[in-house]
Write a structure and sequence with these properties.
Length: 105
């Protein structure tokens, strides 16, 4: 079964601008308008004021972050990729350690 992508917020463009671009923008806007956690009080009342500028409605903190999110949003796929990369790096480091003879003296 093929997963059907929903246009979400980009439905407002109707039939214009092309499906591919609308899907890309939809992903970004979902992140931008979605729940953001305040780094100071950990509430989710953070709103985007401008590009990279965020404001928390609970503790009234105004701070900088990324353009579309407070912090980088790591998707499940990216997390999987990161862990596999880390494993590769560790295996590489271990194999390098084995090659070099240890000098304790
Ligand atoms: Zn806050």
């Amino acid at each position: 079964m093929v997963e059907i992508k929903k246009l979400g917020s980009t439905k407002r463009f109707g039939a214009r601008y092309g499906a591919r671009l609308k899907h890309i923008l939809s992903k970004i806007e979902k992140e931008q308008k979605g729940r953001q956690i305040c780094p100071y009080c950990h509430s989710d009342k953070v709103r985007r004021i401008a590009v990279g500028i965020w404001h928390c409605g609970r503790c009234d903190a105004k701070f900088t972050g990324k353009a579309y999110s407070v912090r980088k949003v790591v998707t499940a796929e990216e997390a999987e990729q990161e862990t596999t990369d880390e494993k590769k790096d560790r295996l590489k480091a271990e194999s390098e350690e084995k090659e070099e003879p240890e000098n304790d003296e």
